[in-house]
Amino acid sequence: MMHSIPSPQLSSKQVFEQMYQYMDTPALLIGSSGQVECYNSAFLKMFHNGGIEIGKTPLELVFDVPLREVQSIRESFAVKRALKVVVRSFVKSFVNQQYELFLSPVVLHGETYYVGLLFPLVPIVVHPDPELSQFQLLADNSNDFLALLDHEGAFLYTSPAITRILGYHHDELAGDRPYDFIHPDDQERMVRNYQMLIKKGSVLPTNYRFRHKNGHYVWVESSMQIAPATAQSPLRTIIITRDIEERMNAWKAQLNAEEALLASEMRYKILTEVTNQGVLIHRNGYVVDINPALQRMIGLTDEEFKGKAVLDFIHPDSKPMVLHNMQSGYNGTYEVLVLRKDGSHFVSELTVKNMVINDENFRVATLTDLTDRIRHEKQVRDSEERFRGIFDNAIAGIAFADEHGRILLSNSAFSQLLDYEVDELNGFLLCDLAICESEVLCHQSLLSCLIDNQVPGYVEKRLMKKDGSIVWVNLSLSMIPATERTPVYLVAVVQDITAKKKNEVALIEALDYNRTINQTSPVGIITTNARGKITFANYKAERMLGLSRNSASPYAYQLPKWQFRTKDGKPMSAAALPFMQVRQLRKPIHGCEHMIVLDNGHQLCLSVNAAPIMRDGEFFGMIATFEDITEKIKKDRELIRSYEKMSELNATKDKFFSIIAHDLRSPLANLFSLTELLHKNYREYDESTTTELIQLLYENSSRTYLLLENLLTWSRSQCNKLTFNPVMLSLLHMVDDTIQLLSSGIIQKNIALVNLCDRQIDVLADQAMLSIVIRNLLTNAVKFSHPGSAVEIKTFFDSRYGDKVVLAIADQGTGMTPEVKDKLFKIGQQASHPGTQGEQGTGLGLMLCKEFVEKQGGKIWVESALNEGSTFYVTLPLHPVVGPQSRDKGAMIGNLKEC
């Protein structure tokens, strides 16, 4: 915390007395809580009645203040804003006089006070029914500018004082309206005052700006009063105006001074308490004040500083210089050694300035700790030395250039590469050293590449040596952005690859000998360099891969945009490419199969054999052969599909023979046995036994007939001999017909079949196929239901199946395990299970249901749990006449889990 200077600092009361004591205007100093702290002699002479107790008497007890003005004063004190109020004095001799009290907030020594200035208002004394001649007699002898307005608000008369105040002749404004001369910013306020005057008869004096005859505006104060209309004179308005320009200027000057004082205090606080620099103020060599930053630097509190000599904190080596500068009054900056509390010291930059405060001499010293700066400078010097050592001894050539590419500095490796002396290259343009593919100097293309970000890492370039010969290099060109201290720099790093390029050329020449053989090869052959760029391709490879030679370079190819995929058509990772595998493993690979999608969309399946090209143990490139296996893969896939189809046909055949051999043989054997019994013994049986045997014959023959019908229907469907003929069908009627057909089995087991299908729903389906589906599903539901239970058939809609209706058949029977449920609709895997009363089946009915439902564009699935019953679901397409309204009637969104 910054402490105040004891001797030159004045109290709040002393500051007020120095500023206002000898002013002719009455003035008060008021505390933030509204109590009068002190006042000047002018206030004492005009207002003081002996009843003011300094620091305790509220402002409203000093003056006769209206109640509403007291509230305004308290609100202004709370938000610390300026205020103007009209008050009266309690002093008898001034009891009828009104005054304007201007209250302005000021900050003294961190506390808020209010300065109040009083200005008298001239009372308006007007005869209740003045005649114009009498008013003129009164106004002509007044120092204030008096005016009389008619009932329309225009000037009837203006007193001669207008010439002194506003420059107009006293008859010049007759007939004009005052509104036309008021400053635009004050017009609206004056209109409101005039309207209030007409309504109430009087208003408080108002300050505003009136246009002077020469064009500028003058601050004036006007009091207005209505002269009531009589039989002799109509309603008129009396205005008394005085010049307050000097008063307003003084008030503005006071506000500016107060703002300047506040700003000065804030600046002092910021400079001393917020800054990281240490600040010390001393007089005659003894410390007066310090700031927190200096306390932290030296490790002492403010109490430990007070009264001590400045030289107590200076290292003995620096004391003579500091003492000499203090005695000579030196103003400036120099370095000294400053002592800490623990006895250590640090180098500080000391800036000293002499100041005079209230006729006393002070010296203000600002201390900056140079420890970090010295350490940083040493680090920079060490870094520069390390960089210089690396730069000068680097194997690669390095050159720094300006933003235009002009060389500023290069190391010995760079100059030796081009056979120049180090200083000879300074001033050369980098572009003048590089040669393009067109065998001419690069000019600006090298920089254009850099600006357009077209140089990814190292690129191969040819540079011209001093003697005109060519050297191949790997060139890396990068830009160092500008900073506040440095401009833009270019850094060029080059590595000599002339020997490597010669080896590449030798390799290409060697490959040329084999070109004729390679061109007649039935497989594609390519070679690449170490970066994977194709350097050779035979005729077969060019035609298969869509390669074309680059006209600018005979050994470069124009590569299309390939897409690499696995032979299954999935995207292929870069690591799985033959080149990446060979480069990584450093050994040959064989039989790598993948797919390439060419520019024209053609897909090519390749079998690739590749081997690395090694030179002196280093990877130099790859040689690869490949052949087109697209047709082979297609044939393999066709064989797989044929095998799968054959397996399915075999399963169908096995199922067919299984049904004939087992499921059809058993009921036929039963029929034979029953008919044999009746044939041999029908005369010996009584009527009940004969009836029972006939009933058994009927049931057995019915099951056999149903089995044969399903078998023949399924056989025709497998041979594609069934025709699909969709018509409009009512699900409600189809279910009712099937229930009637199965009535005997339903009655026997006492099963309740509940048909809840929406009668407004029609489906587009083949009647025969749909009848078989419903019959088989209801037969199964009855078969596996317990006697006395119910089977429920209903329809509903589910948004997951679009515009299709869902038919659900739910029983309360035995249910099934997940293993059995998974095999229901799979050929050759389903198995028939006996019903709750031993009913037999083949499992063929559900296969027919699946095929017939899918032929009609629907789906079939089941939800079941063991001993909890089963629900079979079928989706069917709606008939076009069925609209959303019809569907919504029976809509019931189910939370289904599709099997």
TrEMBL record:
Pfam families: HATPase_c, HisKA, PAS_3, PAS_9. Residues 131-201, 263-333, 383-427 form the PAS domain. GO terms for molecular function: phosphorelay sensor kinase activity. CDD domains: HisKA (cd00082), PAS (cd00130). It comes from the Bacteria. Its EC number is 2.7.13.3. Residues 659-880 form the Histidine kinase domain. This is histidine kinase. It comes from Breznakibacter xylanolyticus.
